[in-house]
Design a protein that fits this description.
This protein has 2 domains: 110 residues, Cobalt-precorrin-4 Transmethylase, domain 1; 133 residues, Methyltransferase, Cobalt-precorrin-4 Transmethylase, Domain 2 (2-Layer Sandwich), CATH 3.30.950.10. Helices cover 24% and strands 19% of the residues. The strands form 2 sheets. A 5-stranded parallel beta sheet has the order 3-2-4-1-5, with helices on both faces. A 5-stranded mixed beta sheet has the order 6-7-10-8-9, with helices on both faces. Strand 8 and strand 9 form a beta hairpin. Helix 3 packs across helix 4. The radius of gyration is 20 Å and the shape is globular. It binds S-adenosyl-L-homocysteine. S-adenosyl-L-homocysteine (SAH) binds next to helix 5 and strand 10.
Length: 263
């Protein structure tokens, strides 16, 4: 075993752990996440939690799937909130597994607030967010000296009204990497607005589908060809969109798409 920080709160009955699992590869699970998973009486998990990670859940633990697909919500968020409270009140150790990091477009904040409002304590276990892990696996540095000095994580999820209300003018800096989560459906609007805001149509871009999993696919394009690339290959979620000059840091010759660069 490894030394555990002694000031950490122990996981006790009647508590919930919101655990980030990273984007899929079980190798990217933290030791902390693994430790919580091993103690679970019940696991409530999302669509983005990979099968490989679910195989680490103890056989005796109950499992509830609350995944959702775009426009086809299985269990609404209120239902998930209720489930968490219900099972905590039954004095179980509840592990809520989420893809990536619970606090990055993961509604972890909402679930934690709901738990606290209902008198349930919760542990927040960070996970590796898709923007970080998926780009590393395909050889795209999020920042690179002289090429990119900042990086934004943005949701491309469109509200029911069909609107995508984002501060486009703040994204026009050539030296900023822009990463969109949940942006596949709204990609035509995203690329159009970025070009309108002043980003060059030739800005390199990449689409990473099911990054870090055995089904990972990466497509390279530029701002003007991104939307057509999605159409052409019929690319579905979960896909991460990375826009910026960093995409071209390494050439095809170096890349193996599994987090390995060869000379
Ligand atoms: N909490 C998660 C994000 C959830 S939002 C995190 O921190 O990573 C869901 C979006 O995340 C997907 O639509 C996709 O854009 C991105 N995503 C999550 N896992 C991914 C993966 N393995 N490959 C590509 N994109 C992924």
């Amino acid at each position: 075993m490894y030394p555990v920080n002694q000031s950490k709160q122990a996981f006790i009955q009647g508590e919930v752990a919101l655990v980030g699992t990273g984007p899929g590869d079980p190798d990217l699970l933290t030791l902390q996440a693994y430790r919580f998973i091993q103690q679970a009486d019940i696991v409530i998990y999302d669509r983005l939690v990979s099968k490989a990670i679910m195989s680490l859940v103890p056989g005796a633990a109950e499992r509830i799937y609350v995944g959702k697909k775009q426009a086809q919500h299985r269990v609404p968020q209120e239902g998930i909130n209720q489930l968490l409270v219900e099972h905590a009140k039954l004095n179980k150790k509840v592990v809520r597994l989420k893809g990536g990091d619970p606090f990055v477009f993961g509604r972890g904040g909402e679930e934690a607030l709901h738990l606290l409002n209902n008198g349930v304590a919760c542990h927040i276990v960070p996970g590796m967010t898709a923007a970080s892990a998926c780009t590393s696996y395909v050889g795209i540095p999020l920042t690179h000296r002289q090429v990119s000095q900042s990086c934004s994580f943005i949701t491309g999820h469109v509200k029911d009204s069909g609107e995508l209300d984002l501060p486009w003018q703040t994204l026009n800096d050539k030296k900023q990497t822009v990463v969109f989560y949940m942006g596949i459906k709204s990609l035509p609007i995203i690329t159009e607005q970025l070009i309108k805001a002043g980003r060059s149509a030739s800005t390199p871009a990449a689409l990473i589908h099911k990054g870090t999993t055995p089904e990972q696919q990466v497509y390279r394009a530029n701002l003007s060809t991104l939307a057509a690339t999605v159409e052409q290959h019929n690319i579905k979620p979960p896909t991460l969109i990375v826009i910026g000059d960093v995409v071209n840091t390494f050439n095809e010759h170096h890349l193996t798409n599994i987090g390995y660069l060869s000379p």
